[in-house]
């Protein structure tokens, strides 16, 4: 009914009012006059469906000032979605309200579009230049046997660690259907050393956050404004729809459900998490299903690309048991001894298992932290694993492997991040047999900037490869990955930056791996 009504409105007039279902505010500013260009943070699209996607912007004439330089009034913004870059054939158009409660962010769930097609979108207001133009592609029809799909994978963009040129390069990749962002979109903490100096690991502080560690809603908002002022990040958003997640640094390093890493009482940490997740929602191109409520939000969700691929986006933060040896105990922890523990929570685990029965050619589990077994031998000869990844929750990993095997699936690919290096490897069916049969393949994408320039010297990885026979590649540079998916093969390409601590870094292809859907194996091509 609503859709029909909207179509009639659209047909009747080029100047219609679609308020995106949000209702009228009492004091809506129909002809806003702003002190400066409103779209300093760019535009974004997200979560493609066959009939549309989300489009996003935030009115923010003075990004680093209080309230982004906006007066405390709701304002009307017009939006347009066109079949061509010059906006001569409008497909949909309407108006939305940018509200001060949401930092004047606008999320429009555009529908009524054709499947499997590229569109262009922009925002306009009276008395101001139009926003930059973004482009996004709708997903193919639900029953389509699509021939191809191309996804970018990126995340971990510490502003202080380097420049975002990798995002500029990603924006120029051909034919992107979407970008999966695995999280660490902002970092909450600020380095204490001067810009231009290095820490004890040789990591240079390339740029400076504005203040100290984030706790309040306004501080988180200003951090998003700082990051989103970056032209390379804006270019990546303008080039393709993003399918966004969050990891720990959108809130606090290594948070776990209602616990932070410092042992803060849960009800006090909840205040910080509530502020952080509101700011995340405000700045991400997500649907109303992800609107925060009571300090939580529904991050995990599914997106289908016809019959070719089902993307299961997980939330490995909000429902997990606390990390072993937390807080602040740096001693060795035998994660393999942990017989229980959940990373996804019972409900999400069941949701994921059910969803893999969809009969798609590929199942992509798009999530945050490393799933494959990974141990490092320390100088004392002791083998340790991260307690923050699936390695800290081996029982949860075992249950997921059982769910994959019970359904006879050989087509599960894991995308992850968080580790700031590229890793390609397999998740073995049994932890004790890392070179045995595999249950899934995993591609962990390195960071955009976090940890700085890194090194192209891959001989440093030899020990790690020896220690972990399920690991096929490890590289310590910055960059991103590309997934080229067809019914016959999954091809992952690892891209690396020569430098990020000064602007103008160049991208190159490190390696490509191919997976076939009938066996969880990868080979280099
Ligand atoms: Fe990170
Ligand atoms: Ca992380």
Description:
The structure is a single chain. With 525 residues, the protein is α+β, with helices and mostly antiparallel strands. It has two domains: 4-137, Purple acid phosphatase-like, N-terminal (Immunoglobulin-like); 149-524, Alkaline phosphatase D (PhoD) (Purple Acid Phosphatase, chain A, domain 2). It has helices spanning 2-12, 165-171, 217-228, 231-239, 266-283, 346-355, 394-406, 462-467, and strands at residues 28-29, 43-49, 52-58, 74-82, 90-98, 105-109, 118-124, 134-137, 149-154, 178-181, 242-244, 301-305, 309-313, 362-366, 376-377, 383-384, 412-416, 422-428, 438-444, 471-475, 479-485, 490-497, 507-516, 519-524. A seven-stranded mixed sheet has the order 11-10-9-21-22-23-24, covered by helices on one side. α2 (165-171) links the parallel β9 (149-154) and β10. The longest helix is centred in the middle third of the chain and has 18 residues, at 266-283. Fe (iii) ion binds at residues 156, 184, 249, 418, 420, 447, 450.
Layout of helices and strands:
Blueprint: H1 2-12, E1 28-29, E2 43-49, E3 52-58, E4 74-82, E5 90-98, E6 105-109, E7 118-124, E8 134-137, E9 149-154, H2 165-171, E10 178-181, H3 217-228, H4 231-239, E11 242-244, H5 266-283, E12 301-305, E13 309-313, H6 346-355, E14 362-366, E15 376-377, E16 383-384, H7 394-406, E17 412-416, E18 422-428, E19 438-444, H8 462-467, E20 471-475, E21 479-485, E22 490-497, E23 507-516, E24 519-524
Parallel strand pairs: 1-4, 9-10, 10-11, 13-14, 14-17, 17-19
Antiparallel strand pairs: 2-3, 3-6, 4-5, 4-7, 7-8, 9-21, 12-13, 15-16, 18-19, 18-20, 21-22, 22-23, 23-24
Helix pairs in contact: 2-4, 3-5
